[in-house]
Amino acid sequence: MYLKRFYDDRLAHASYLVGCQATGEAIVIDPGRNVEIYLREADDQGLTITHVTETHIHADYLSGSRQLAHQAGAMMYLSKEGDEDWQYGFLSEQDRLVGDGDVIGVGNLELEVMHTPGHTPEHISFVLTDKPAGGPSIGVFTGDFVFVGDVGRPDLLEKAAGLKDTMKKGAEALYASLQRFKALPDHRQIWPAHGAGSACGKALGAIPSSVLGYEKTTNWAFRCETEAEFVKEILDGQPEPPKYFAMMKELNKVGPPLLDSEMPPHLKWSTDGTDRRTQLVDLRGTSSFTKGHPKGAIFLPEGGAFVTWAGWLLDYDNDIELLLSSPSELKSKVEGLRSIGLDRVKGYFLESELPSDLVLQKSERISPEELEPDASYILDVRSQAEWEEGHLDGAHHIHLGYLTEHLNEIPDNPVLHCQSGQRSLIASSLLQRAGKNPSDILGGYSAMEERKLTHS
Predict the structure, then answer these.
(1) Is the Cα torsion angle 26, 30, 35, 40 positive or negative in sign?
(2) What is the pLDDT of residues 362-413, one digit of tens each?
(3) Is the separation of the CB atoms in 375 and 393 below 8 Å?
(4) d(CA 87, CA 255)
(5) Staple partner for 366: which of 202, 345, 370, 377, CB 3.0–4.6 Å?
(6) What pTM did the predictor assign?
(7) CA nearest to 240, candidates 165, 156, 341, 154
(8) Nearest 10 degrees: CA dihedral of 83, 88, 94, 98?
């Protein structure tokens, strides 16, 4: 047997390739949309991807199951569990719906389907057995059901997909799934679909995998003694789900669009005006953006936060153009955007090729000491939980992810801050694009606390 874990840091997303080396067949579980990584790995190992599956209709990224099955000529095995609101709508004649107790055979390997509702009604897990080894099952691909140190949140259908009165029912179903799951032998390995940083839970561990016996001892969810205790705990303090989760739920249900392998073209800057519906996204980094950027450019940060904030803030219905420092950055940035269905990238500009006479805007940034005591409008763009922990007297609060919905409410010359200064620069770019002349505080709330300039 061959098992390979793939991990996308931008989405804290884990997927798996499992192959039978005796027959050369392989299955991929919960694939992302960059399917080339699975095809390359299978080829390197002398395997052929014959099966593709996923644990549920995902909310935090666009599934690669359809894309991979299309390119590999593989069969999809998708859940038939759950209610009619969340049934897959894109299976072909060769694909198969599976439910509790069904077995997917991959050469000499078996994956038994276990219905594990709660995070979503249709959620299934896969119990892996290596038949030639002659022993019991090895472990379980748990998807968004059980993580290391946490379990999948049951509130997303209500908060992200708009299905009312589903949070409590989901929590109760999740508790029942855990009672069934913890009756399995303690030696079972747990291979989850997410790690630390995912918005699919509130306290995910960074360890790649775990063992059921260990989770029974350390995972808070297994230690809850009653359903009421569990429901209260699981629904308390969940982070705000990014706005794009609703789009992912819908696209993953009806079928993600198939992609070609072409990258967007290299563009030349035109001075004859730009369609204001087009979103120019500046990905050159903080220093370059603050020193000067084209009018209307939207700043998005480097690193793992790039994809999440793109999903929060970019409009899926309009085109996107990228401003890059180097063409070598294009592939990773486009793949990041495509991983959450932001496919409308028209092309990219290079910093070095911007016209010399192009008038650039600068970002106005001030130190904590420069904040005027009588500043008329201070905007805190942190999360609700951060705001409740402490905030400036008289400040206004709008979570960065919802800022574009409230632009008309914000007066000219606002002063912005977040916790450390990154989110406020994103907010500054959005407000500058809207003509509001913002400034943001370097170092954010942390720097003001350090200098004892905060009052809450």
Answers:
(1) negative
(2) 999 999 999 887 788 999 999 999 999 999 999 999 999 999 999 999 999 9
(3) no
(4) 11
(5) 370
(6) 0.93
(7) 156
(8) -40
